[in-house]
Target: Cytochrome P450 family protein
Amino acid sequence: MGQKGDKFLRDSALNLLVAGRDSMSAGLSWFFWLVATHPSVESKILEEMKGSFASKEADWRSVLGMNEVSKLVYLHAAICESLRLFPPVPYLHVCAINPDILPSGHRINPNTKLYYSLYAMGRMEETWGEDCLEFKPERWISEEGGIKHIPSYKFIAFSTGPRSCLGKETTMIEMKMVATAVLWNYQIKVVESHSVSPNVSVVLHMEHGLKVRLTKRFV
Ligand code: HEM
Model:
């Protein structure tokens, strides 16, 4: 491969590493915080894991394959719900090349920069209903017990359209694997006096990080 090809490969690899590092760690922190503060969700996640892994005699690591975690519907729902309420990329901007008119009727001139909040879009009552501020994985589960398809222009955490996140599937698999490895082995309790709030930045980190105590589970 020539120099150009090498540079392309190097840049692509770096892009994938950078794009998925902070977003993933912020996403996991919010997910663990929500699970730790919603014991009924934690119990349902564990119940589902026990049901799914019960037949496996071996060590829990052997149930961490892609196929195994893809069976965990409730866990998938809980991760989507966490990304809805705390999208690791909280706002984005686009810039118009040509004049345009938005569906709202607003006129846009060339070079107009448009900022929009993924954080606000995940919490709008007219989109998500009266319980929009509640952490409810159930809203992602269909009557048949599968994952409800929610279009990307509504569940906007990975953006939508041709420049949406290339790592969406990877993210869901990785988050499920990390969540399984941690929750199967440990109970998470947030340190009592620790205050948790979002830090308004390019990535939605926690202002003071997440301080927790881990207790080993005996499963
Ligand atoms: C919780 C985890 C993640 C979230 C919330 C997330 C979110 C997003 C968002 C909102 C965008 C659009 C950015 C923009 O329009 O400027 C994006 C783009 C992108 N993401 Fe992710 N991402 C995550 C993880 C990952 C991972 C793990 C990878 C790689 C394996 C990845 C690769 C990319 C790439 C390459 C783009 C640019 C796509 C393009 O411009 O065509 N992301 N992501």
Remarks:
- The mean pLDDT is 93.
- The two ends are 51 Å apart (CA to CA).
